[in-house]
Specification:
Amidase_CS; Amidase signature (AS) enzymes; 468 residues; 11-stranded mixed beta sheet; catalytic activity; alpha/beta; globular
């Protein structure tokens, strides 16, 4: 059954539609795998065996009667434990909320279930999604399946590990400063941060409400596209939700002729680990071999925008957590407490100034991207480091050391993280494709074309915990 657990979502859907695959057997196999691997990797905080099995029984009855709810019918999916699942714990990776069970599903969970998904569990994360490592002192540090002494990246580390190791076919993550994209890069999987407003955040505990995104995490670009098809609709319950309809172009690109790719060396390609640089160079050459035209560009105002990103994210985080800090401050882990103290000291003047800088920077970037289809950047700038090797005070800069991802969250543009190679120690490396607002369809087409040519998803079978 292990081979089935690494099929892509489209293949599983076809097998279920043709009654070649049983939702019950598939779900039970996933739950069994979670039971075997989770004590080692700490990918899940909560697994609901009974509810998942009962839903599989229901979906199998529907399957046998010829009713298929949608593209995820009978497909096991993991949900980051900061997103509400009715009746299940939503801890946000904290002890403060360890006993809280929300009374409704998040909009994204409801849409997954309407499409037939089976929610198998709540994925582990960096506490309150406020960190880049997923070293959780309360529920166990999420371990990178390629080397369990190393971090999996964060904050959606459990979601990435679940997908990479066959403990789910896809997962939901959240991305405020790179939290979908970084763990995907460090674990050898795919992560999509949609355009801000494309996917509803109703029913998700906030980190920074003007930066927060929810996105799919999968093993292939096409699987991310399938999940986005399910998730991307207007939601009146999220005031930031876009009313712009989403319709994906399902044309499969044979090559990238006619695609113009922008490369901004400043900031994005600075301070890249020497072992990762040749992998990125090869990825750029591959895109050119596929017919894309690469052109260098300059985006003015990056340093000022980075300052704005820090001010906005930390101030908004503190404003949400202030009531909890008054009563439960002693229960926060040291690194999160340090970040919140930084946010407490940000003035209203600096916050408003940062928002003005942000608006100007978005417009300047759009002006620079005229005639550009996609920006290409490294995803992780450094390799995964050992668990426990960074102090709480140093941790606030982890995302900026591991990846230059936060700037894209400030922009709110769609971004796709996907593998671009492996180091000599057999650790994954990722690159990032960034599109203009609401161009997810093109982004996914370009990513899929590269992925089919490069073939990196097949490398997952070499991970020790894919064969266990």
């Amino acid at each position: 059954m292990t081979d089935v657990l690494f099929k892509d979502i489209g293949a599983v859907h076809n097998d279920i539609c043709a009654k070649r695959l049983s939702p019950i057997e598939l779900t039970d196999a996933v739950l069994k795998r979670i039971g075997r691997l989770n004590p080692i990797l700490h990918a899940f905080i909560h697994v609901d065996h009974e509810k998942a099995h009962q839903r599989a029984v229901q979906l199998e009855r529907e399957q046998m009667s010829g009713t298929i709810r949608g593209p995820l019918h009978g497909v096991p999916i993991a949900v980051k434990d900061i997103i509400h699942v009715k009746g299940a714990p939503t801890t946000a990776g904290s002890m403060i909320l360890k006993d809280w069970r929300p009374g409704e599903d998040a909009t994204v969970v409801r849409r997954l279930e309407e499409a037939g998904a089976i929610i198998v569990g709540k994925a582990n994360l960096h506490e309150f999604a406020m960190g880049a490592t997923s070293e959780n002192p309360h529920y166990g540090a999420v371990r990178n399946p390629w080397d369990i002494s190393k971090i999996a990246g964060g904050s959606s580390g459990g979601s990435a590990v679940a997908v990479a190791t066959g403990m789910s076919f896809g997962a939901l993550g959240t991305d405020t400063a790179g939290s979908v994209r970084l763990p995907s890069a460090l674990c050898g999987t795919v992560g999509l941060k949609p355009t801000y407003g494309r996917v509803s955040r109703h029913g998700c505990l906030p980190f920074s409400w003007s930066f927060d995104h929810i996105g799919p995490m999968t093993r292939t670009v096409r699987d991310a596209a399938i999940m986005l098809d399910v998730l991307a609709r207007h939601d009146p319950l999220d005031e930031a939700s876009s009313s712009l309809p989403y319709k994906r172009d399902t044309t499969i690109l044979r090559d990238l002729t006619g695609i113009t790719i922008g490369v901004c060396q400043e900031h994005f390609f600075e301070d890249v680990d020497n072992e990762l640089t040749p992998l990125l160079d090869e990825a750029l050459l591959t895109l050119e071999k596929l017919g894309a035209t690469c052109t260098n560009l300059h985006i003015p105002g990056i340093e000022e925008a980075l300052w704005a990103q820090r001010m906005i994210a930390q101030a908004e985080a503190y404003s949400f957590h202030e009531p909890l800090l008054n009563d439960f401050g002693h229960q926060y882990s040291p690194d999160v407490a340090f970040r919140l103290e930084f946010g407490r000291q940000i003035s209203a003047t600096d916050y408003l100034k940062a928002q003005r800088i942000r608006r100007s920077f978005i417009q300047r970037t759009l002006d620079v991207m005229k005639g550009i289809d996609v920006l290409v950047t490294p995803m992780n700038h450094n390799k995964a480091f050992p668990i426990g090797s960074v102090t709480p005070k140093e941790s606030i800069a982890n995302m900026f050391k591991l990846a230059k991802a936060p700037l894209v969250s400030l922009l709110g543009f769609p971004a796709l993280a996907l593998p671009c190679g492996y180091t000599g120690e057999n650790m994954p490396a990722g690159m990032q494709l960034v599109g203009k607002p609401f161009t997810e369809s093109l982004l996914l087409q370009v990513g899929d074309c590269y992925e089919r040519f490069a073939g990196w998803p097949e490398r997952l079978v070499q991970c020790k915990y894919t064969t266990n």
